[in-house]
Amino acid sequence: MLVLQAPFFKDKLLIYDSNHHVFGVRELPNAKLIQQCLQEVDRCLETHNGTVIWFVADLARSGAKYRNLESLPRRDSGALLATLGLVAEGMRLEFCGLGLHEIPSLKRFLKFNQSVVGVGGCIVIGPIA
Fold first, then answer.
1. For the chain, what are the domain ranges?
2. Nearest-CA neighbor of 124 among 54, 22, 74, 36?
3. How far, in Å, CA of 32 to CA of 34, rounded?
4. 103, 37 in Cβ contact below 8 A?
5. What sign results for the dihedral spanned by CA atoms 43, 34, 125, 99?
6. Using an 8 Å Cβ cutoff, are 3 and 84 in contact?
7. Which residues on adjacent β-strands are paired with residue 105?
8. E strand or H helix at 54
9. 74-127 pLDDT tens trace
10. Given this model, what pLDDT does residue 88 score?
11. What helix, strand, coil percent values describe the chain, rounded to 5?
């Protein structure tokens, strides 16, 4: 899971570390990179001042444990979207899932290998007035 444009980390990227269940802060060599990524998301839905959360899956890692895993990352992404949507509603935040699966400029910057793919994401804005 990656977080773009978080309120206290405007020019930084937050990357979820599943081994320790924490977010790490990744400094970006160029602040324009986040803007480029957000422009790609804006083609799907305008982000305004929202926090963009993007889900990624490493198919090679999943493939080591599961057979016929083609739909597994998409189902997991749907479960994450549903859970985040319910939590956002409970916290009176605005929430919208994205139909976007890849953010090409971010994938290039992070140098993801071919087995890492985007599997959706969302925008969270809040609180609701």
1. 2-125
2. 54
3. 5
4. yes
5. positive
6. no
7. none
8. strand 51-58
9. 888 899 999 999 999 999 999 998 876 677 777 777 777 788 888 888 999 988
10. 94
11. 35, 30, 35
- Write phi, then psi, for 106 (nearest 5 degrees): -70, -40
Stated length of the chain: 129
Residue 86: phi, psi to the nearest 5? -65, -45
The SS3 call for residue 20 is coil
Provide the residue type at 108 as one letter. Answer: R
* pLDDT, tens digit (0-9, with 9 covering 90-100), for 22-70: 988 877 767 677 777 778 888 777 777 788 888 888 888 777 777 777 7
CA 25 remoteness from chain centre: 14
Specify the pTM.
0.79
Residue 28 CA to residue 25 CA, distance in Å, equals 9
